[in-house]
Amino acid sequence: MEEKKKIIFSGIQPSGNLTIGNYLGALKNWVKLQDKYDCYFCVVDLHAITVRQQPKDLRRRTLEVLAIYLAAGIDPERNTIFIQSHVPTHCEAAWLLNCFTYVGELSRMTQYKNKSQKYSDSGDPISAGLLNYPVLMAADILLYNADLVPVGKDQTQHIELTRDIAQRFNNIYSPTFTIPEGYIPESGAKVMDLQEPTKKMSKSSGNPNSFILIMDPPEVIRRKINRCVTDSIGKVKYSDDQPGIKNLINILIALQGTTAEEVEKKYENLGYAEFKNDVAEAIVQELKPIQDKVKHYLENKYYLEEIYKKGAEKAHYVSNKVLRKMQKKIGFIPPAR
Ligand code: TYM
């Protein structure tokens, strides 16, 4: 008999155009893992509205993220690909789990602290959704009894919280949820900002020169890498004293599977210009075929629709069983048939 595959859940928010950080920290690894696992890959649009979105941009980006999943190599025949808001169990489970999560835990999340600080500095109100966001993420993961959650480093704290919530629920009632593990890639787990290389590269940054988008045209990629901040040391070294260069080396490692030593050796007697040039070409080579496929998928909306329809049906079927279990354990009376 075929052995039951372990389960993976992961998602990306359509809250901005995806960056090479999203690609190297998450998507590229999903593609590698899809053979060995039973995977659920979600476009987490409910997460995206924790900050205000223009409706038409949200619609466009949701489909674009889906197209990027496919173009990067996620096979819709083998994986369940869906849009979060199409599967109502996520919101229902999130409410239940909210009642097993403490405000203190949520307000200690680094991402919440950073984002809420940013909003209060600019005088914008902070939505309760921003605080509760990791509970929705816990619902996403626990509803599928995921064993593994492949994400970038910035999400590890949310996965820890998911584990705590799951353990708490299991202890109060009886074993209900699988306790998930994070899967953080060895390289590419934290791609840094090109202008401030001590900060994480983020799709919500206000400065377009600080990130490379998956959909950036080749000439834009070349320009951004060419202008990225380095240092005056002038040696290609993998060192914390040279965060800009270290970041570019990490990008090369994640793209080409090379090592820091090999890169240092290759550029021992060469300047930054040549090194940057090669990094830019490596990125262009990786992204160009993906970009062409994305354009093709976006011209075939009907095909995308078929995929997210089928994905939502499967995701609803699987997650609804877990939701029912949660409701029963909590003590809700099942609806009369
Ligand atoms: P999001 O949309 O911010 O990012 C999507 C994925 O990209 C990774 N990532 C990075 N990796 C390396 N370097 C970077 N600079 C970088 N920036 C982003 C993130 O770690 C993430 O893996 N809460 C999640 C989405 C989510 C989710 C889930 C993930 C919702 N529910 C359930 C896993 C499981 C988020 O905001 O990711």
From TrEMBL:
<dbReference type="GO" id="GO:0005829">
    <property type="term" value="C:cytosol"/>
</dbReference>
<feature type="binding site">
    <location>
        <begin position="152"/>
        <end position="154"/>
    </location>
    <ligand>
        <name>ATP</name>
    </ligand>
</feature>
<feature type="binding site">
    <location>
        <position position="140"/>
    </location>
    <ligand>
        <name>L-tryptophan</name>
    </ligand>
</feature>
<keyword id="KW-0436">Ligase</keyword>
<feature type="binding site">
    <location>
        <position position="191"/>
    </location>
    <ligand>
        <name>ATP</name>
    </ligand>
</feature>
<dbReference type="GO" id="GO:0005524">
    <property type="term" value="F:ATP binding"/>
</dbReference>
<dbReference type="InterPro" id="IPR002305">
    <property type="entry name" value="aa-tRNA-synth_Ic"/>
</dbReference>
<dbReference type="InterPro" id="IPR002306">
    <property type="entry name" value="Trp-tRNA-ligase"/>
</dbReference>
<feature type="binding site">
    <location>
        <begin position="21"/>
        <end position="22"/>
    </location>
    <ligand>
        <name>ATP</name>
    </ligand>
</feature>
<comment type="function">
    <text>Catalyzes the attachment of tryptophan to tRNA(Trp).</text>
</comment>
<dbReference type="InterPro" id="IPR024109">
    <property type="entry name" value="Trp-tRNA-ligase_bac-type"/>
</dbReference>
<dbReference type="Pfam" id="PF00579">
    <property type="entry name" value="tRNA-synt_1b"/>
</dbReference>
<dbReference type="GO" id="GO:0004830">
    <property type="term" value="F:tryptophan-tRNA ligase activity"/>
</dbReference>
<feature type="short sequence motif" description="'HIGH' region">
    <location>
        <begin position="14"/>
        <end position="22"/>
    </location>
</feature>
<keyword id="KW-0030">Aminoacyl-tRNA synthetase</keyword>
<dbReference type="GO" id="GO:0006436">
    <property type="term" value="P:tryptophanyl-tRNA aminoacylation"/>
</dbReference>
<comment type="similarity">
    <text>Belongs to the class-I aminoacyl-tRNA synthetase family.</text>
</comment>
<dbReference type="InterPro" id="IPR001412">
    <property type="entry name" value="aa-tRNA-synth_I_CS"/>
</dbReference>
<dbReference type="InterPro" id="IPR014729">
    <property type="entry name" value="Rossmann-like_a/b/a_fold"/>
</dbReference>
<keyword id="KW-0963">Cytoplasm</keyword>
<keyword id="KW-0648">Protein biosynthesis</keyword>
<keyword id="KW-0547">Nucleotide-binding</keyword>
<protein>
    <recommendedName>
        <fullName>Tryptophan--tRNA ligase</fullName>
        <ecNumber>6.1.1.2</ecNumber>
    </recommendedName>
</protein>
<dbReference type="InterPro" id="IPR050203">
    <property type="entry name" value="Trp-tRNA_synthetase"/>
</dbReference>
<feature type="binding site">
    <location>
        <begin position="200"/>
        <end position="204"/>
    </location>
    <ligand>
        <name>ATP</name>
    </ligand>
</feature>
<feature type="binding site">
    <location>
        <begin position="13"/>
        <end position="15"/>
    </location>
    <ligand>
        <name>ATP</name>
    </ligand>
</feature>
<keyword id="KW-0067">ATP-binding</keyword>
<comment type="subunit">
    <text>Homodimer.</text>
</comment>
<feature type="short sequence motif" description="'KMSKS' region">
    <location>
        <begin position="200"/>
        <end position="204"/>
    </location>
</feature>
